[in-house]
Amino acid sequence: MTASLARHRAWSAPCPRRPGYRGQLWLMLAPYLLGLALLVVVPALVGLPLALTAYNALEPARFVGFDNLVELATDPIFRTSVFNSGVYVALAVPLRLLGALGLAFLLFRPGRGVGAGRAAVYLPTVVPDVAWALLWLWLLNPAYGPVNGLLALVGLPGPAWMVEEWGARSAVILMLVWQIGEGLVACLAALGDIPAETLEQSAVDGAGVWQTLRGVTLPLLAPVLLILLFRDTIFSLQSTFVPALILGDGGGPNYATTFIPMWIYTNAFEYLRYGYAMAMTWTMYGLTALLLFGQYRVARRWRLGFADAE
Amino acid sequence: MRSNGGRRHGARATLRPLAIVAVAALFLVPLWLLVAASLRPLGRPLSRGVEWLPRPAAWGNYPAVFELIDLWRHAANSAFVVALAVPLTVVVASWAGFALAQLPQAWRLRLTLLSFAAMGVPLTAVWLSRFLMFKEAGLLDNRLALVVPALGGTSPFYVLLFLWTFLRVPAELYEAARLDGAGALGVWARIAMPLARPTIVAVAILAFLHYWSSFVEPLLYIQSLDKQTLPYALQALHQLDPTNWPLLMAGAALVTAPVVLVFLLGQRYFLQPFRGQGWFGR
């Protein structure tokens, strides 16, 4: 069967192997492209019209125009969730980025304990979200938790963590700052891509450690740092979900850990308001895009600053 | 000048291991406290202060978790998902990476950009649509719904990892195999994959961690408790008895142990990108 097919092709096509090979490559690519289309592109597009409807998945969707967006604008909990997500992005994302970068500088060059150190730093990242959140629920127990126990050892009063609004927000940031293994790997890889000669040249030119860092290393790392910044910003919109569900017991106290995904989830899967939740999803897209654009503008200005310093 | 440099180097050489030990300890302490809390005898009143190692260590907490929830069943569900999803992910992602590496430059660039764009779509944005799609397809409350992303290679990032690996292989090797009459699948299986072993291990581990830990997908797509995977079971245990810390921590440790084991076995494949080797080394 295959033999006859091959003979047929050889007979019909003037140059049989090349187009056949190219076609085979496209076939190998097909599952991935289909997956992207069906699991990412189509879901995103299907959602767009749904944002203009009232839909509870039991009755047919009813067109309501821009009602959902109007309601969003006046929804106090949505406004709180935007504020919470904003606080997270403003505090946790820079902390995670600086942490990953600092640890990468420490753990880059080969040496004693470097391999074990890298593994230790990465280890919290592999802990399943739910287990990690439950662990921190225990660690941050206001009365008996080890964190407040440690604080008491050095004579500091422990906060009530998940009972107060800012305590709860800090708790979520704290537990996610530990999971920076992927950022570490990306920074290590970026450091590995800097040619040794460039650094040696800088040293020969008499540049100190700090000057080399500012004038050579950081500008060369800038693209990777920017990608990490974007990625962390985008993922912060989903990585807060499990902490909010478990530490905040569904977004509490007083909606302090109701980040945008938590409020989307609550509306969609508890109130069965799919249309409204979809409008929120698209608003989140828009806000994220705005944020990324702002970060890009700032980063570009920083990079120009680096170039001037040289 | 020289001696000064040497002394400075000497000081740094002793400080660096100390800093590494301190950092390692900082990141390991939470996990140590997880194990310590799981070994606390049940019923002993909670005490203030930090308990680094309970005496006597109550190992019986671990079997006690199995009596509270059917952990074996949930572990079997998790194993089912991982056993299907991880090999599928490796095959589909490596096919796509291989094809991208062999296609003309213009297509490679376009599809790489598309992959980066797709990585930027937060899962939050597709929860709802995927839920509705699975509902239409009759996949709700079916464990296969959890495997579906693997049919598309799970993450564009894995495809890019394979692409970067296959681009490093000299093109003549592929050409030679093709001239021997191998088709695209043949070149992939005989030339590309054997040279990509570190990347295969890294992607397999990352995919394993992803599917084993995934919580939101089972939460959304699976309704029956007996079809749920381990992370959901852990949350169920939490809701069953929210303040029984020793049992909760024992459950968390049990769910975490396999990923830690897999990670420690394979970590060198993706934590050692010293110059010129590893993931991105070119």
Structure keywords:
heterodimer; A: 310 residues; mainly alpha; MetI-like fold; two-stranded antiparallel sheet; 14 helices; disordered C terminus; B: mainly alpha; 13 helices; disordered N terminus
Summarize the structure.
The complex is a heterodimer of chains A (about 300) and B (about 280). Chain A has about 300 residues and is mainly α. Chain A has helices spanning about 1-10, 15-50, 65-75, 75-105, 115-125, 130-140, 145-155, 165-175, 180-195, 195-205, 210-240, 240-245, 260-270, 275-310; strands spanning about 55, 60-65.
Structure write-up:
The complex is a heterodimer of chains A (310) and B (282). Chain A has 310 residues and is an all-alpha fold. Chain A folds into two domains: 2-50, no CATH class; 67-309, MetI-like (MetI-like fold, Orthogonal Bundle). Helix content of chain A is 76%, strand content 1%. Chain A contains 14 helices and two strands; from the N terminus they run ααββαααααααααααα. Chain A has helices at residues 2-12, 17-50, 67-74, 76-107, 114-126, 129-139, 146-153, 165-177, 181-193, 196-204, 209-239, 241-246, 260-270, 274-309; strands at 53-54, 62-63. In chain A, strands 1-2 form a two-stranded antiparallel sheet. In chain A, β1 (53-54) and β2 (62-63) form a beta hairpin. In chain A, α9 packs antiparallel against α11 (209-239), α10 (196-204) crosses α11 (209-239) and α13 (260-270) runs antiparallel to α14 (274-309). The longest helix of chain A has 36 residues, at 274-309. The radius of gyration of chain A is 25 Å and the shape is globular. By secondary structure, chain B is an all-alpha fold. Chain B has a domain at 69-240: MetI-like (MetI-like fold), CATH 1.10.3720. Helices cover 71% and strands 0% of the residues of chain B. In chain B, α3 crosses α9 (197-213). Mean pLDDT of chain B is 87; it is low at 1-6 and 274-282.
